[in-house]
Design a protein that fits this description.
Layout lengths: L22 H16 L6 H28 L8 H5 L1 H22 L12 H34 L3 H33 L5 H13 L2 H9 L3 H7 L4 H13 L14 H28 L1
Helix pairs in contact: 1-5, 2-4, 2-5, 4-5, 4-6, 4-7, 5-6, 5-11, 6-7, 6-10, 6-11, 8-9, 10-11
Protein name: ABC-2 type transport system permease protein
Organism: Asanoa ferruginea
Keywords: Membrane, Transmembrane, Transmembrane helix
């Protein structure tokens, strides 16, 4: 008589008896986990190096500007200029963070969370994008708030403090616009590539590939070409919106974008809408494959 070929072990699996949370909680859980991923939290030391290096550089710049403002009253960098000055750092930040958010999931085909309900493709895409935009706001918006603290202690009178508060509020909206444009483009590119290093290089290339076109248009003997040149590059595109929003007292001739500020804003909105639409479409396709 032969012996049994296998043994059944009871490893303690039980039916889930807790509350079954809804769609909003599923998205919130994914958003929270993704935001932690942006800063490498809950992962190895190696994954924390670059995001926290960016945090450190952004904080040092803000602290130096804050200290100079507090000691001398001199405005070294305006609130709205802060994300422009650190634009290259922001590109590198989203280029590293976006592949960490989506390329790993694409490569393994597995999510790090276990959900009590099916996750919709659009919810996944928007949660990842929201996490990256939030990361940009925490790093660069946080720097603007540090500069505001220095300004609040250097100006005299409550009205001046409120003026500074209004300025930093507008600048934070401007930083959010940077986050939306850079984040939507970065997550879209990363969603097309499974290898993180390749995705990071492709994201950086997406931001700089049109820079030579801007340079060529700027050399043409046409004032209108000069004013429209910046619209073809995402970095200078957002910068053009900033010129339009934060230089209202300058005449159109004094602005590099001329009278085309509303056009810059429209193209920015359309660019974000296009990237988000393509991103959601991408994950609807992935969910069916």
């Amino acid at each position: 008589m032969s012996s049994p070929a296998g043994v059944i072990h009871d490893i303690g699996y039980q039916r889930y008896a807790g509350a079954r949370l809804g769609r909003r909680d599923v998205v919130l859980a994914l958003y929270t986990q993704s935001l932690r991923t942006v800063f490498g939290l809950g992962r190895s030391f190696k994954a924390k190096i670059f995001p926290w290096f960016v945090v450190g550089v952004a904080a040092i710049v803000a602290i130096v500007v804050m200290a100079i403002r507090a000691q001398t009253g001199e405005v070294v960098i305006k609130y709205a200029d802060y994300p422009q000055v650190l634009g290259l750092l922001m590109i590198l930040f989203v280029a590293i963070a976006a592949p960490e958010l989506v390329s790993r999931d694409l490569h393994s085909g597995v999510l790090p969370l276990y959900f009590s309900r099916p996750l919709r493709p659009g919810d996944y895409a928007l949660a990842k994008l929201a996490a990256l935009v939030s990361g940009v706001m925490l790093v660069f918006g946080g720097g603007q708030l540090l500069i505001f603290i220095g300004a609040a202690f250097s100006v005299k009178g409550f009205s001046n403090v409120m003026n500074e508060l209004g300025d930093v509020g507008l600048a934070l909206i401007y930083t959010a616009l940077y986050g939306l444009v850079f984040g939507s483009m970065a997550v879209l590119v990363a969603s097309l590539l499974k290898r993180r290093a390749v995705a990071a290089a492709a994201i950086v290339g997406t931001f700089i590939v049109t820079a030579p076109i801007v340079a060529v248009l700027a050399t043409l003997p046409s004032e209108r070409a000069h004013q429209l040149a910046q619209i073809v590059n995402p970095v200078s595109l957002v910068g053009g919106v900033g010129d339009w929003l934060f230089e209202p007292t300058s005449s159109s001739e004094e602005l590099g974008i001329g009278p085309f500020g509303p056009l810059y804003a429209l193209v920015t909105v359309l660019l974000v809408a296009l990237c988000v639409t393509l991103l959601i479409g991408r994950y609807r396709k992935v969910s069916k494959s």
